[in-house]
Amino acid sequence: MCGFVGFFPCAPGQDSERILLGMASALKHRGPDSDGSWIDAEDKVALAHRRLSVVDLSQHGSQPMVSPSGQYVIVYNGEIYNHLSIRQLISDPPGGWRGSSDTETLLAAIEKWGIVEALSRVVGMFAFALWDRQRKTLTLARDRLGEKPLYWGWQNGTLLFGSELKALCKHPGFRKEIDRNSLSLFTRYGYVPAPYSIYRGVSKLMPGHYLSIPLSQEGNLTSCVEQSKPYWSINDTVRQGIANPFLGDDDAAIDMLERQLQETIHDQMLADVPVGAFFSGGIDSSVVVSLMQGMSSKPVQTFTVGLGKNDNDEAQHAETVAEYLKTEHRSLIVRPEDALDVVPLLPKIYCEPLSADSQIPLYLISGLARQHVTVSLSGDGGDELFGGYNRYLSALKVWKKLQAIPKPLRHVVSQILSSVSPANWDLLFSYIRPALPAKYRLAIPGTKAQKLAGVLKVDSEHDYFLNLISHWKNVNELVLNSVEVPTIATDATKWVEADCFEHWMMAMDTQTFLPDEVMTKVDRAAMANSLETRAPLLDHRVVELAWRMPLDKKIRDGEGKWILRQVLYRHVPKQVIDKPKKGFGIPIDEWLRGPLKEWAEKLLDKDRLREEGYFNADLVYEKWRQHLTGKYSWQYQLWPILMFQAWLENERGD
Q1: Which long-range contacts does 291-298 make (Cβ < 8 Å, 24+ apart)?
Q2: Most buried residue, 58, 178, 615, 643, by most Cβ within 10 Å?
Q3: How far is CA 502 from CA 88, 239, 385, 394, in A?
Q4: Is the backbone peptide bond immediately before 93 cis, with ω within 30 degrees of 0?
Q5: Residues 31, 52: Cα–Cα separation, whole Å
Q6: How far apart are CA 104 and CA 87, in angstroms?
Q7: 209 alpha-carbon distance from chain centroid
Q8: Per-residue model confidence as pLDDT tens digits over 493-514
Q9: Cβ 160 vs Cβ 152: under 8 Å
Q10: pTM to 2 decimal places
Q11: Is the Cβ–Cβ distance between 283 and 564 less than 8 Å?
């Protein structure tokens, strides 16, 4: 795991070197072990790299790296897990292999097969910039699932590209102009979806895409975006999987998934530094850790974070499973003040505003893991691929019931639900809960009543899904002078024709929420601690196999991740893994009325909001006052505003 940055054109002399190294210094957390730079004075291309040494710790793995022929120069972030098998397919390059790094392997693959075929052959997570000195072309590429970030754009006639926005911002030509349309998207989703970024003139390269830019003549952002091409896509994978489903019985399906996971995890355990795993004791991380332990000659190092409040705390459950698997387990029991201390760091960690309260525990567990390992595997992707989110289990059922209710009546019920505060709904349910059947004993009933009030107003299942994933729904009213531009979630021309609504939602989440929220959160939190993370479930071979599995292999008897559970039960008894577990829940709603109140009051000050001119100050302030009274819980609406405000303050150096 590393970081890179570059720009074109660069002026001759020491000034370009100084600018380049200054940009690279903003990525030191991504690569604390070494740095390197390369400038093509003739063609005015500048590249820099920060290295976190994981494979081939010698100087032979240093970047920027020039190919043996001298045609290509690369800066690269990530890991190619099958690079040893690729080496076997390539005759020794001129002069032989210089070292054992996957960077050298990637360069050799590009020289032998060309960029597109090399991309189709590699298995891994990566982003890279490749300068072709012969064709005078810069190619940017990003891994299939969007695990690694890559920003790029034209600013004042200069092409800037790199791993994080904070590096691009160090160039003297960079304009810190907020894109209000992107801000409106952020307030809806809690993240800025690709290809957009929070700054005008800068894009995120889409997952599974590459972009070749001829630098013999300057281009512009719009024309280059149109040239971005996919070498792999979720929609194609969905279509192919549904058209060619796995037809074997349950046991054969479980065998096939287990074999693929074993191969994938074996590949991802390859490193010249200590490797461990994030471990919650849930299905996804337990599958990863149990298979890791089965292939390891010594206990796998595992890490959990928890609040330690009750018997269902995530850390206690993880310790139980870890004890069964005999891992070398460490738990970080976090006090509220520890978590609160992270809040001021968030705008420094995330180069774009991101609204996810789980970014707090993720940063803390990354810090714990980095004390003992350099690489940590995770279970990310299991929910999207195998039907783990609650909306996959209930959305279609709820939508069918809603359709049976006349629209005027739905609107009346919505108004009734909205008229009662979440706190009062919670209080009411606390009284009647003992008398309710188990399936109706809802957790956080007040919040769910609010969500139900919203969905009662929608007119289609796709609108229903958009309602479920939205923080703010009236974003054009909220963000001043903005237009809500199309995204994958709202542009029907980008939707795949799935065989069922559940699969459609899973496909949508895999290409939006997963890369733009989940993996962004993981990458930045881990890299802030100079920790490499790897997600075996996002190996594209696992993804393609998952989409060949019919829905009943994923969701069965009202329970998600069925096939993943069956793999796990072969290694951990069901009675051990299926004990009730409570995740690490950050009580943002309570904190905003308590220890974070003063911080939030400053950021949400009505005069300040009016002066800055991004938000409808009256609308935001009303939500804030209602939240403080406890009549409503608006933390899901307020947290994105607060994250943007804190990020903006950090960007301005206030």
Answers
A1: 291/258, 291/261, 291/262, 291/265, 291/571, 292/265, 292/377, 293/325, 293/326, 293/327, 294/262, 294/571, 295/262, 295/265, 295/266, 295/269, 296/269
A2: 643
A3: 41, 14, 11, 9
A4: no
A5: 4
A6: 10
A7: 17
A8: 999 999 999 999 999 999 999 9
A9: yes
A10: 0.92
A11: yes
